[in-house]
């Protein structure tokens, strides 16, 4: 398990590492065999440089296919947010038996709830 805060390199598309290792070993063997035959025919030292360049290109392609990702577990606690929407329609202007409008009563309720939501003592 990865301790919190410590990064780790993960290859997302590598499910079976042994299969990737086998394919890479086979590719390296094929590349060496092919370029050895080319060197025997041409006897030019440039052959080995070309083999290294081709191998680097193939390695870059395999790396892209393996999809490397740097992951890190972090305990980040975000504060919660609460949104209150008050209706401002004509029905909210109706008065109750105390003479206050529905809108005024809703605002008072929100004002009373704010200390409870924020976790501090009210007025």
**Count of alpha/pi helices:** 3
Low-confidence stretches: none
From N to C, what is the helix and strand string?
Answer: EHHEH
Q: What is the β-strand count?
A: 2
Structural class: mainly alpha
Radius of gyration: 34 Å
Shape: rod-shaped
Strand content: 5-15%
- What gap, in angstroms, lies between the N and C termini? 48 Å
Query: Which percent bin holds the helix content?
Result: 40-55%
Strand order of the largest sheet: 1-2
Major β-sheet profile: 2 strands, antiparallel
Average pLDDT: 85
Would you write up a description of this structure?
The structure is a single chain. By secondary structure, the chain is mostly helical. The chain is built from 3 helices and 2 strands. The protein has helices spanning 17-42, 46-66, 102-118; strands at 7-11, 68-72. A two-stranded antiparallel ribbon has the order 1-2. The longest helix is centred in the N-terminal third of the chain and has 26 residues, at 17-42. It is rod-shaped. 0% of the residues are buried.
Protein topology:
Elements: E1 7-11, H1 17-42, H2 46-66, E2 68-72, H3 102-118
Antiparallel strand pairs: 1-2
Helix pairs in contact: 1-2
Features:
123 residues, mainly alpha, two-stranded antiparallel sheet, 3 helices, 2 strands, 8% strand
Describe what is shown at a glance.
52% of the residues lie in helices and 8% in strands. It has helices at residues 17-42, 46-66, 102-118, and strands at 7-11, 68-72.
């Amino acid at each position: 398990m990865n301790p919190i805060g410590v990064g780790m390199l993960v290859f997302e598309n590598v499910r079976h590492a042994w299969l990737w290792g086998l394919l890479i070993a086979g590719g390296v063997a094929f590349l060496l065999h092919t370029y050895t035959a080319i060197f025997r025919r041409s006897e030019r030292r440039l052959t080995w440089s070309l083999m290294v360049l081709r191998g680097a290109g193939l390695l870059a392609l395999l790396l892209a296919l393996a999809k490397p990702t740097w992951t890190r577990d972090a305990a980040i606690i975000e504060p919660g947010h609460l949104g209150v929407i008050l209706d401002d329609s004509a029905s909210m202007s109706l008065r109750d038996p105390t003479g206050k409008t529905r809108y005024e009563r809703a605002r008072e309720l929100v004002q009373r709830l704010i200390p409870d939501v924020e976790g501090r003592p009210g007025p």
